[in-house]
C-alpha cells in the first residue's frame, strides 16, 4: 500500500485542520519547502499536497510553493485544491512536473472536465471525493451536495478515472481512526484504486487500511504529532508489498 505524507498549504504555511474547519487551524511548519525536504529525507516515497487557499478560492494559489516543494523533495507528488480548469491541470502536469492532479469540487460540478482530462492525461488524473454523512461536499468542504458518495464514485469510474481519494470529513484531523465501513463499501462499489484519507491515528490504522487491500492511504496529523513515524510508514508499505 502506498502511503502519502500530507502537506496542506494555507497562507504559505503547512497547517492541519480539524474536520475541514478553517477556523480550527494548527500551523505544523511555517516552511513547506523544509517540510517537503524533511519527509523526503525520512524515507517518504510519494507526497500528497493540498492547496487549501486554492480550494476556497476555486483556483490554485500556492503554485510557486508547490513547484519548489516538488523540486527539493525529488519525489512523486500529487496535488489537489482549487483545480477547476484544463489550463490549471496542464500547468501542474506539464510545467510544474507534478505527477498526479486531484480534481475535487469540479468533478461534481463539471464532469466533462474530468472526462476531457482523462483523455489527455490518463492515470495522472485522480478525483477527490470528500463526504459528510455520506454525501459529497464541495468548495473547500463548505457546501454539501445531495449526491451520495457511492453513486458519485461509480460515475467517476465510468469517466475513466483510475484513482479516487476518499475523505470522510467527520474523521479528518480527529485521530479517531479511518471510516473503515465507508471505505469497505466504496471498495465493493468500484474496481479502481482507492486512497483513504482522514482519521489515521497510528500504525495499526494503516495496517487495517492495508488489510482492506486499498491502493493507498494519506497520513497527516498523526505524522506531525509523532503518533506515527516515517519508519513505521515504510514498514507498512513494505508489508503491503
Quick recap:
The chain has 241 residues and is of the alpha/beta class. Helix content is 40%, strand content 29%.
Radius of gyration: 16 Å
Low-confidence parts lasting 5 or more residues at pLDDT below 50? none
Fraction of helical residues: 40-55%
CATH topology: TIM Barrel
Top-tier CATH class:
Alpha Beta
Number of helices: 11
Number of domains: 1
Give the helices and strands as they follow along the chain: EEEHEHHEHEHHEEEHEHEHEHH
The end-to-end distance, rounded to whole angstroms, is: 7 Å
Query: Averaging pLDDT over every residue, what do you get?
Result: 91
Main structural class: alpha/beta
Order of adjacent strands in the largest pleated sheet? 1-4-5-6-7-10-11-12
Report the principal-axis shape: globular
Write down how many β-strands occur, each being a DSSP E stretch of 2 or more residues: 12
CATH architecture: Alpha-Beta Barrel
Bin the strand percentage: 25-35%
CATH superfamily: Aldolase class I
Amino acid at each position: 500500500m502506498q502511503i502519502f505524507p500530507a502537506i496542506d498549504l494555507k497562507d504559505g504555511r503547512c497547517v492541519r485542520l480539524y474536520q475541514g474547519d478553517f477556523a480550527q487551524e494548527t500551523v505544523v511548519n511555517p516552511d513547506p519547502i523544509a517540510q517537503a525536504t524533511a519527509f523526503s529525507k525520512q524515507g517518504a516515497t510519494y507526497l500528497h499536497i493540498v492547496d487549501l487557499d486554492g480550494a476556497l478560492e476555486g483556483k490554485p494559489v500556492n503554485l510557486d510553493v508547490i513547484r519548489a516543494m516538488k523540486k527539493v523533495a525529488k519525489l512523486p507528488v500529487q496535488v489537489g485544491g482549487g483545480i477547476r480548469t484544463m489550463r490549471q491541470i496542464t500547468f501542474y502536469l506539464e510545467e510544474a512536473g507534478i505527477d498526479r492532479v486531484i480534481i475535487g469540487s469540479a468533478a461534481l460540478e463539471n464532469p466533462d472536465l474530468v472526462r476531457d482530462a482523462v483523455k489527455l492525461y490518463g492515470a495522472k488524473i485522480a478525483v477527490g471525493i470528500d463526504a459528510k454523512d455520506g454525501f459529497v461536499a464541495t468548495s473547500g468542504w463548505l457546501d454539501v451536495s445531495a449526491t451520495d458518495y457511492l453513486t458519485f464514485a461509480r460515475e467517476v469510474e465510468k469517466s475513466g478515472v483510475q484513482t479516487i481519494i476518499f475523505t470522510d470529513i467527520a474523521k479528518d484531523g480527529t485521530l479517531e481512526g479511518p471510516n473503515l465501513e465507508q471505505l469497505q463499501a466504496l471498495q465493493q462499489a468500484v474496481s479502481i484504486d482507492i486512497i483513504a484519507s482522514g482519521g489515521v491515528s497510528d500504525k495499526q490504522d494503516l495496517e487495517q487500511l492495508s488489510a482492506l487491500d486499498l491502493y493507498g492511504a494519506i497520513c497527516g496529523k498523526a505524522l506531525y504529532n509523532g503518533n506515527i513515524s516515517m519508519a513505521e510508514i515504510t514498514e507498512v508499505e513494505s508489508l503491503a508489498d
